[in-house]
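Data availability (excerpt). All sequences and predicted token strings are deposited with the supplementary files. A representative entry, UPF0210 protein B9T62_19620, is shown inline so that the format can be inspected without opening the archive.
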Amino acid sequence: MISLVEVQETNKMIREMNLDVRTITMGISLMDCAHPDMATFNRNVYDKITRSAEKLVKTGEDLERQFGVPIVNKRISVTPISIAAGAVKTDSYVPVAEALDRAAKEVGVNFIGGFSALVQKGCTTGDRILIDSIPEALAVTERVCASVNVGSSRNGINMDAVKLMGDIIIQTAERTKDRDSIGCAKLVVFCNAVEDNPFMAGAFHGVGERECVINVGVSGPGVIKRALEEVRGQDFETLCETIKRTAFKVTRVGQLVAQEASKRMGVPFGIIDLSLAPTPLIGDSIAEIFQVMGLEEAGAPGTTAALAILNDNVKKGGVMASSYVGGLSGAFIPVSEDHGMIQAVQRGALTLEKLEAMTCVCSVGLDMIAIPGSTSKETIAGIIADEAAIGMVNNKTTAVRLIPVIGKEVGEMVEFGGLLGYAPVMAVNPFSCAGFVNRGGRIPAPIHSFKN
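Structure token line:
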């Protein structure tokens, strides 16, 4: 049992260190909504989501008041639409995205994820329809998030899909250029996507999940930073132990919220995702943790080692606090959502290439990075391929959420608002990779994938 004494111990973290439950995400299976008629399918989807998540937002608000823990977002993830809508006779899933958006607005959630396709080994007809629908779907909806998994350690990398996603990202940027190409902030390309991720834009409800579950994502960069300030200059063992102990306390808060939410809604508890997901607020930054560790700026020599320490010990502390830690748990490094990262880019300490190196040891990958709107689709595909290769070879989840901002060039600032923050447009390597990405086919899985 989790005692109220433990909750009270976290009051200072909440008041002074920006501790929050970043999201309660309800995962909902849409497999029983299948129907060949689009209108019938959409009605089934809308009815099931609004019925299942009817009490989600109110429950989150009640828990905030009872425990004093901010719950920043209430979200929904659904079965990948390319699977759930596979029987629908159509050439576009945009109407499905609109139905998802209406349902999300009706129940009051911030985002709904699952406009997704899993194409690591090849595309079905439904997968291709979904991918082709993404630009318009993200332009005409407000709360729908999309994701495509293009590779895995078991199957290799589908380079046809990688090439296609380079084009889809450009199309999405063009369709939302009047809003600084914000559609791309709701689109992520994965390698080794996980089925129980509560964080957007990559959340979907995997086919191996239950009918309906509650997943909770906890965030606490400010808490880790404050704890490390108390051991400034001490050795690495002390540094690691401090991170583990602090991560344990943060995870216990998430465990309490998850258990209570599950109980009150009568929905099984899935996982706790302990992710150090930053915000644009000063004091709630991964980059500022690096500075407390002894680096002048994020991007300085030693940054990748510092991130590896942080990521590993957050996970070690989390798994001691809950039997069901999952999702993407670890440290996120989104540029636009982290005040310290933004500052490092502006000062010239942090480049796209250094960020790529850091993704070898972080939770996810290249996240919320604004690049020039003139960047070619082949260059974007090349960046996706690089990141997917890191995930495939290292047997970890990696992702790319790039935002080619139409009409903006290197050094200009882009405002996305809210948790999405703001970002300087970063430089991209100008040399072409077109001959490489245009080869087509699939990059085979690495030799260590044969584990049977």
